[in-house]
Amino acid sequence: MKKLGYIIYSLFGAGLVLTGFMTTEKGFKENDRTELDRVAEDYKELGDMGFKGFCPTDYKVAFSSGEKDIVVDYNDGDYKVSERDAVYEGLVGSIYQNGDEFEVVVPEYDTWISIQAGSGEQLSSVIWHESFHAYQNEYCKLYDKVDSAMLGETELSSEVDNNAEAKRLYEKELQILGQLADEENSCDIHEIALEYISVAEERDNLLTDEINRSEAFYEMMEGSAYYVESHAVRYENGEQVYRNNYLESAAEYKNGNSKYYSHGMLECMLLDELNPEWKDSYSFDRTLDEVIEEYAVK
Q1: 196 vs 59: CA distance, rounded Å
Q2: From CA 236, how far away is CA 128, in angstroms rounded?
Q3: Least confident of 149-163, 181-195, 206-220
Q4: How confident is the model at residue 92 (pLDDT cuts 50, 70, 90)?
Q5: Within 10 A of 171 (CB to CB), how many other CB atoms are there?
Q6: Which positions ≥6 away from 85 have C-beta within 8 Å?
Q7: What pLDDT, in 10s, does the model give residues 231-259?
Q8: Which CA distances in Å does 27 have to 68, 103, 204?
Q9: Can you tell me the distance from the alpha carbon of 52 to that of 229, in angstroms, rounded to the nearest whole number?
Q10: Of the candidates 250, 284, 252, 242, which has an alpha carbon nearest to the alpha carbon of residue 270?
């Protein structure tokens, strides 16, 4: 169980690991309560976004100082609060398996606004993102797909970011998918899908099965969570913030693992156009490319 918890932390974290922040106020803080209430209110309007069984407030949220976690179990406006030693060193956006349950772990609000002042990203969006990872595991057993053949983020990035042809083709994939973010786009959706699949297959043939499986996993896992997060931000902050924060640079190639977030989000957007009901039967048992190909040829 300890090993599994480490794997989940490594794969499902939002990439935020910081130390040295302390707060003096004890217990469940008002700002943290506000962020959790915001998620609950947003859910009343957004619902499960098509992913059956998904509800962000189904999962306990641990607001962490890096030394202590304030664990909140939300139930229709009521809160059951407990305190424990932090389950992760430093400050993270991640999930944690506690027995048979998956919990969300995020920084306290006061720390979050200090380190995110430049981006303006709300803590509520991180709760949406990480709770979706908890859902992926609780309902769809996504962690069962992690095995010794799965490349970690650093190794995977080293392999693909230094391969000029693989990078060129991935940039082309992003450019094709990026047409979905163009407000003036008038292209045929099936043409976009078929062109994308053609380039994706060419790139797959260039790389090893190990790399292809690893990339597809990150696109599916992180891309779908980023997609959910983006819809929450769109609802909370409006169209312009959504476009600026999620669509403006989505088609740009980025070294490291962050490109899989944008790529997977764009794949979900393409599937929305191909078949708005694609999520009804999706349980993370197939790659997003496989689902796109299925609907593209119909």
Answers
A1: 36
A2: 12
A3: 181-195
A4: confident
A5: 16
A6: 67, 68, 69
A7: 999 999 999 999 999 999 999 999 999 99
A8: 10, 18, 50
A9: 16
A10: 250
- The rounded distance, in Å, linking the Cα atoms of 254 and 243 is 18
Tell me the C-alpha distance between 30 and 172, whole Å: 46
CA–CA separation, 192 vs 251, rounded Å? 14
Place of tokens 């059956």: 52
Q: What is the 3-state secondary structure (H, E, C) of the chain?
A: CHHHHHHHHHHHCCCCCECCCCCCCCCCCHHHHHHHHHHHHHHHHHCCCCCCCCCHHHCCEEEECCCEEEEEEEECCEEEEEEEECCCCCECCEEEEECCEEEEEEECHHHHHHHCCCCCCCHHHHHHHHHHHHHHHHHHCHHHHCCCCCCCHHHHHHHHHCCHHHHHHHHHHHHHHHHHHCCCCCCCHHHHHHHHHHHHHHHHHHCCHHHHHHHHHHHHHHHHHHHHHHHHHHHHHCHHHHHHHHHCCCCCCCCCCHHHHHHHHHHHHHHHHHCCCHHHHCCCCCCHHHHHHHHHCC
Grade residue 279 by pLDDT with cuts at 50, 70 and 90.
very high
The answer to whether the CB of 224 falls within 8 A of the CB of 129 is: no
Tokens of 4: 């599994």
State pTM to two decimals. Answer: 0.90
On whether the CB atoms of residues 257 and 153 are closer than 8 A, the answer is yes
> For the segment 113-167, what is each residue's pLDDT rounded down to a tens digit?
887 766 678 899 999 999 999 999 999 888 888 877 889 888 999 999 999 999 9
